[in-house]
Amino acid sequence: MPPTHLSAPAVTYNDVVAAQARIAGHVGNTPCLHSQTLSQITGAKVYLKFENLQFTSSFKERGALNKLSLLPKQQRDKGVIAVSAGNHAQGVAYHAQRLGVPAVIVMPRFSPMVKIERTRGFGAEVVLSGDTFDDAKSEAARLAISRALTMVHPYDDVDVIAGQGTIALEVLQQQPDIDCLCVAIGGGGLISGIAVAARALKPSIDIVGVQTDQFPSMYAAFKGVDMPSANATLAEGIAVKHPGDLTVQIVRKLVDDVVLVSEGDIEQAIVMLLEIEKTVVEGAGATGLAAVLRHRERFVGRRVCVILCGGNIDPMVLADIIERGMVRAGRLARIRVHTRDVPGELARAATLIGQAGANIEEVEHQRAFTTLPVQNAELEFVLQTRGPDHIEEVLRVLHAAGLYATTHPY
Question: Which pTM was predicted?
């Protein structure tokens, strides 16, 4: 669906320019760099905007600071409240603390612990409520009224959107030849601000939004279809069941396309960014690259800027993703070997695997829980390998020694 330019959006280019001046010196002007390796892999000329290098590891502090800076003194003195799965929470908490504004943050109960603890570390009062962003939003609305707090909305707010749009000003100043922007969408604040600014500076630019297929709310609104949301996603930062009223209007007017990616696509993108670019991103931060990988034909030959919008990922989750990524790449494999149940057979199999150049990470020796005949055993090895070809080489060595061996799903 091409963008329609029927009327001016509620947020203007001048609002974004004013926001840039307002937050200058307090929010990082992050690098936007070309990735030669990712460009070779995708067929597009890929640039990465490293918003994960902000102090709170997310773009969210741009909009939060712009909003807080515009509040009258009376509202600042009473305090603010925000609802967030984590990144908006940190942006509001950090800049509220810096400005001396009391802050209450409502977060879903299962938000990543790293985001909860960092938010508390910025001096905010954290309230955990509900299982999803929308559950937390209801509690935040109740508290805002009962405690006379000013709501700092994470996306459906003119000042917040204008703050997020400053990313586009930086991108097009740093890399003016970029002709496509690939942007994650949750509630739509980031892509709305970027679209307003980028469309004004470069009307022909292609703006593509990305959502996980687990939470396709903006995709559904953009395409005019009904699609249910799931209960959880690796990209919890964009797990929004209902996008903003204002952001939907802006996206429909100014965004060229919205595409979906799977959870597996996001995992793959996280691992690639870590391994190739040596940068850590969370699920939401990886969706842009996931889209370029998944929808290669949509981006091939383009000069694409991918916004790495956040880097707040739980270390344990990251460890799981790395391990799963190694499995998909064939660098971590599980094989089963059948042997006679006599002394020395485990050592023989292990020696053969070592001679083939694989490293044994785990081994299990099973006699009882197997369908093999009595006096036979099943050995299960988890191996570190160089890839699929190396796994086949290990199997050939074992077969040549007279051992039955096969790969086993991880």
Answer: 0.88
